[in-house]
Structure formats: structure tokens, C-alpha cells
Write a structure and sequence with these properties.
With about 240 residues, the chain is of the alpha/beta class. About 25% of the residues lie in helices and about 25% in strands. Strands 1, 2, 3, 4, 5, 6, 7, 8, 9 and 10 form a 10-stranded mixed β-sheet that branches. The mean pLDDT is about 95. Bound molecules: hypoxanthine (HPA). It catalyses: S-methyl-5'-thioinosine + phosphate = 5-(methylsulfanyl)-alpha-D-ribose 1-phosphate + hypoxanthine.
């Protein structure tokens, strides 16, 4: 396995247990990354870590420079990228505290710099995105979780919404009718940009709330934070084991 990068989302502004070896401020043609990259040891494996929302969690989902982040990770040698994602659960199996490795994605975001082929480079390549996630990394996550006896749903469609507000109940119903199982705000354009760069990218999602209209009550940050806290250790144990492969 080539060098693994982990992009941390909500709940993972830092990666507990990561022993830093080097901080890398990477210049990119697309501007600044969310934060400096950290090269470090996670368990028995060496990884790169990048907090998607910045080291102090200040960047909203639509304000993240996804192009700079992916470009910098590849420039620093990453071949594999795991995007961590706190999500809302839509379909019945995707209850709070469930972990999942999605296999499909629908993009509802807008106005984000979503491609490296923006007219400034030579030519346009229409990358294949039939299977939006890298199957070998998906399988590494799924098999690692199985080995650790960590329950995880090995599939699911991730709906990427614009945020930063949560959705209306009708918007979630539309996502569900479209086939979404979970909803988050950062899955795109991250997955597509990784594909354009030839990176092997997969998402490790953890459900932190029932999506709007799915629980009969409003969604609170307290609920989200509590569920997030209960997912952190399980996510970390999977990441450590994947990093050691
Ligand atoms: N909607 C969108 N993004 C999210 C949610 C949600 O309900 N929960 C966590 N990220």
C-alpha cells in the first residue's frame, strides 16, 4: 500500500494517537490548504493528516479549498486517501452511531471549485466516475472493520448537500427518493477531485443524527456532538489498523 492520507472532518480536527514527525506547508497552484499537512505515525503506520475544516475548525463546508487540499496531499506523496465524514442518516439502517463505507454519491452542492479542468490547464479530461470511490480502499476499510469485529455498513449512497445549514424535511425526502442513505456536506467535490488526480479515495462515514424529518424532533448540536463522541474511538481503531497494513 502506498502512502495513506486521512482527511479529518467534524470530530477529527486532530487525530488522537497520531505521533507527528513533520509539518508540511504545501504551496499549491490553487491557493492555501485548510491547514498544514502533518506527516506522522498512527499506530504502526505512517500517514499524512489534514483537517478539512482547518486546525481550528473555522472553514464551513462551502469555504473549503478542496482543490488545494487534494493537490497538496498528492504532492506530498499520498496515493490513498480516506475522507472521514460525519453524516445524517436517512434510510432506516443508517441510525446514529452507525459506521458506513459508502459506494455511491449524489452531488447537490453548487458554486464550489469542483474540477482541476477549469479552462486554465491544457485540455479537459472527462474522468470516469461510475464508481465514485476506490474499491480497493473501500475493501481495506470493510475487511479491517470485520477483522476488528467492528460493525459497519459496507455500502450506501452519500448525498452531498451545500450547508452549512441542515436540510429541510422535504429536501431529505427528495434525497431519499433519489436513493440517498446518508447526507453530509463535504463529500463533494472531494471525491471527484481525488479521481481527477488519480488518487485512490474512499469515505469512512459515521452517522451523528437522524436527518431532517426522520426522527420527529429537531436536530441539535448537542445530539450531534454526543453521537460523534461515541464514534471517535471506533473510527480511530479502524484507521490505525488500515494504516498498519
Ligand atoms: N445533514 C447534512 N450534513 C450532516 C448532517 C445532516 O443531517 N449531519 C452531519 N452532517
Amino acid at each position: 500500500m502506498g502512502l495513506l492520507a486521512i482527511i479529518g472532518g467534524s470530530g477529527f480536527t486532530s487525530l488522537p494517537g497520531l505521533v507527528p514527525l513533520e509539518t508540511l506547508a504545501v504551496e499549491t497552484p490553487y491557493g492555501a490548504t485548510s491547514a498544514s499537512l502533518i506527516r506522522g505515525e498512527l499506530g504502526r503506520g505512517e500517514i499524512l493528516f489534514l483537517p478539512r475544516h482547518g486546525a481550528d475548525h473555522r472553514l464551513p463546508p462551502h469555504g473549503i479549498n478542496y482543490r488545494a487540499n487534494l493537490w497538496a496531499l498528492r504532492a506530498a506523496g499520498a496515493e490513498w486517501v480516506i475522507g472521514l465524514a460525519a453524516v445524517g442518516g436517512i434510510t432506516p439502517l443508517f441510525a446514529p452511531q452507525v459506521l458506513a463505507v459508502p459506494d455511491q454519491i449524489i452531488d447537490y452542492t453548487y458554486g464550489r471549485a469542483h474540477t482541476f479542468y477549469d479552462g486554465t490547464s491544457e485540455g479537459v479530461e472527462h474522468v470516469d466516475f461510475t464508481e465514485p470511490y476506490c474499491e480497493s480502499l473501500r475493501q481495506a476499510l470493510i475487511q479491517t472493520a470485520a477483522r476488528l469485529d467492528e460493525p459497519l455498513i459496507p455500502r450506501g449512497t452519500y448525498g452531498a448537500t451545500q450547508g452549512p445549514r441542515l436540510e429541510s424535511a422535504a429536501e431529505i425526502l427528495r434525497c431519499e427518493q433519489d436513493g440517498c442513505d446518508m447526507v453530509g456536506m463535504t463529500g463533494m467535490p472531494e471525491a471527484a477531485l481525488a479521481r481527477e488526480l488519480g488518487l485512490c479515495y474512499a469515505c469512512l462515514a459515521f452517522v451523528v443524527n437522524w436527518a431532517a424529518g426522520k426522527s420527529g424532533s429537531v436536530i441539535t448540536m448537542k445530539e450531534i456532538e454526543e453521537n460523534l463522541g461515541l464514534c471517535v474511538e471506533r473510527v480511530l481503531s479502524i484507521l490505525k489498523a488500515v494504516a498498519a497494513r
